[in-house]
Amino acid sequence: MPYGYHGKILRVDLSSGNIEVETQPESFYRTYMGGGAMGTYYLLREVKKGADPLGPENLLAVFPSVVTGATIAGQSRINVNAKSPMSGAIGDSQAGGFFPAEFKFAGFDGVIFRGQSKKWVYLSIIDGKAELHNASHLTGKLTGEVDSLLKQEIGGEKAQVMQIGPAAEKGVRFSGIVNMANRLNGRTGMGLVMASKKLKAIVVRGHGKPKIADPKALADLNKIGAQWIPTNPNVESVGRLGTASVVLPQNTFGTLPTHNYNEGQFVRAESISGEKMAATILKTRDTCYACTVRCKRVVEIKEGKYPFDPIYGGPEYETIGTFGSYCGIDDLAVVSMAHQICDMHGVDTISCGATIAFAMECYERGIITKEETGGIDLRFGNGDAMLEVLTQIVTKSGKLGVILAEGSARAAMIWGKGADECLITCKNEEVPAHMPQAKRSLALIYAVNPFGADHQSSEHDWMYEKGIASELYLGRLATMGLTEPQEPMSLGEEKVKFAYLSQAFYSMMDSLDLCQFVYGPAWCLFGPVETVSMIKAVTGWDVTIEELIQVGIRRINLMRTFNAREGFTRKDDTLPKKFFKPLGGTGPTSGIAVGKEEFEAALNMYYGLHGWTNKGVPTPDALKKSGIDWAAEYLPA
Ligand code: SF4
Q: pLDDT confidence of 180, banded at 50, 70, 90?
């Protein structure tokens, strides 16, 4: 019997209704470990070049990892992969909560869906038994309602539900997959793929906790982690104030994207801060399975124009950034209402908020008028207009809602007239609320990341910059061979190495489905040394930091090979035009921009570190070094 996993993966063919169990050897688990590496392994092998992301031939791969469900902080996360309907490239998204651990307890290490059902169905996995059920009675209902109905119908109160909301049923492109009615696999349109398969939900319940190799070592590490929380300022504040704790520091540094990324400071940032939330609408803190950091927020608003039901949790920093400062909105109740609408209907708050901010800029610049908005005065700062447009998007109604439900990149093509100048997308995916103008290695990673701009795919520059990074963080980075902290806003050779190695580490974490506030190369609760100890304690494998970095590089190579086969090359590894123009506004980042030459040089160095061609395509040699020489047959001729 293996430690940490079951050795069983479910295969569900939604066209035929056939369910099978696949087994894989230990070497497979040690090579890929779970999450995005395992998901992409199947996508690359089984989804043919040019497949329609919304057709039966696309796979939807749902994977926790070999450590999910162990009793320690930061392991209860789950990854979804499919070919993305937003980009046509690989899609990838993670979420936390109690669903991921419960999925493991239900008896499997992952589930892969193929085909398309004729009618709406949901899958239950209860103590090792998987069954498909009719879901026609659940369509059109809000996520909170479906969560509750499915618990009554099957599995009981302790069952966990992962579902698509009504927005995905209607075809909103940036639909996500929701668990607990407030945790989202939000990015890259994975909810729309699930809807295309007419799969409404997955319900899990079980008692089959995988065996742990060294329970005492795991318990000791968990105890140490709880003791370290108060001594690590970043982790302490993310627990105390949630991810919204970074609103004010970002504003001070001039990196709080404001007015659709035209400025880096929002004059009313205080009004949408974590401190403001704690002092006004916070009801309680929430957590994911076994996590002592407890960063999740639950807010409640009982009266007024914007009531908030606590079952939908509370807004994260990214949601506050996109619906708040991006849109110039300074009312936390309005931002919370936007969060609630997104969770109820099941859409990604980053893509949705950023798409509305894009439309606001188009309106302010006269690219669209009240003719296109249906009479809505879509100025920056108009909260009610923002909520009206948001409601149109999630219900795919109204002239504006139907267009914006396709995301900003497609809307820009429809509107023309220079609307693309207002875009903040990479590979058609809206950019999160961390400004690469001031974090230059992030500019590189936004561009090269296989599934579009992502703020959680590498360590941010400040952790490796002189005068900013603490001794603890620099000491941790040194264990990965990063020993020369750099000047702020640099993007030279050493920064590119930092980007490459820290992306590999984060990529490993997205294969092991680890929370990036708990494990990481620098600022989190546990650094690389403790990450190794945790994986050893759970699996019994004698892993090293180097082996873990190779898992991350392997995932990136698999994803880039998938993309290369679809025709993605260097031309797609680029940034929004806006990032190369000086920022407006006031504060420390006013007037700065990413330099084009510096960026192109960094791309060359990055490709070189991977051993790829100068077009950004993996070579057979690079795949061989990564232990996946089999993948070379999928490279373009
Ligand atoms: S730090 Fe927050 S998001 Fe991460 S596992 Fe803990 S509660 Fe969940």
A: very high
Length of the chain measured in residues = 637
Ligand 1 atom closest to the Cα of residue 294 is: 7
Taking the mean position of all CA atoms in its chain, how far away is CA 520? 16
Look-up of token digits 């742990």:
212
**Which pTM value belongs to this model?**
0.98
Taking CA atoms only, the protein residue closest to ligand 1 atom 4 is 515
* Mean predicted lDDT score pLDDT of the chain: 97
Q: Which residue has the tokens 């193929």?
A: 114
- Using CA atoms, how far residue 28 sits from 25, 32, 88, 226, 627, in Å, is 6, 6, 27, 33, 11
Q: Answer whether 54's CB lies under 8 Å from 64's CB.
A: no
CA of 445 to the centre of ligand 1 (A): 24
- Of 240, 293, 534, which is best to mutate to test ligand 1, by the most ligand atoms within 8 angstroms of its C-beta? 293
Ligand 1 centroid to Cα of residue 399, in Å, is: 39
Ligand 1 atom closest to the Cα of residue 291 is 6
Structure confidence at residue 63 (pLDDT): 98
Encode pLDDT of 20-33 as tens digits: 999 999 999 999 99
Q: Tell me the CA–centroid distance for residue 593 and ligand 1, in Å.
A: 33
Reported as a single tens digit per residue, the pLDDT across 401-451 is: 999 999 999 999 999 999 999 999 999 999 999 999 999 999 999 999 999
Residue 225 Cα to ligand 1 midpoint, Å, equals: 13
| Residues 6 or more apart in contact with residue 406 via CB below 8 angstroms | 173, 414
- Enter the tokens of residue 310: 């606590």
33 Cα–ligand 1 center, Å: 20
Inform me whether the pLDDT recorded for 244 exceeds 90: yes
Give the other-Cβ count within 10 Å of 633's Cβ: 11
- Work out the burial of residue 275: count CB atoms within 10 Å of its CB; fewer than 13 is exposed, 13-18 middle, 19 or more buried: middle
Q: Which residues of 140-170 are buried (b: 16+ CB within 10 A; e: fewer)?
A: ebbbbebbeebbebbbeeebbbbbbbbbbbb
Residue (of 286, 288, 245, 381) closest to 326 by Cα position: 381
Provide the residue type at 529 as one letter.
Answer: V
**Whole-number Å distance between alpha carbons of 222 and 210:** 18
Q: Identify the pLDDT of residue 521.
A: 96
Name the residue at shortest CA distance from atom 2 of ligand 1: 295
Q: What is the largest CA-CA distance in the chain?
A: 66
Span from the CA of 293 to the centroid of ligand 1 (angstroms): 6
pLDDT above 90 (res 375): yes
pLDDT at residue 218, rounded to an integer = 98
Q: Which amino acid is at 564?
A: A
> Helix 545-565 crosses helix 35-46 at what angle (to 10 degrees)?
30
Mutate which of 180, 183, 518 for ligand 1 pocket (most atoms within 8 A of beta carbon):
518
Q: Best mutation site among 99, 287, 317 for ligand 1, i.e. most ligand atoms within 8 A of its Cβ?
A: 287
Angle (CA) 622-480-292 rounded to 5° is: 115
**Closest of 464, 325, 343 to residue 386, by C-alpha:** 325
Q: Which residue shows structure tokens 């708050």?
A: 349
The finding on whether 479 has its CB within 6 A of some atom of ligand 1 is no
Name the pLDDT band for 535 (thresholds 50, 70, 90).
Answer: very high
Report the nearest atom of ligand 1 relative to the CA of 517.
Answer: 1
CB of 515 closer than 6 A to ligand 1? yes
Which residues are paired to 78 by β-bridges? 95
Cα(206) to centroid of ligand 1, in Å?
Answer: 22
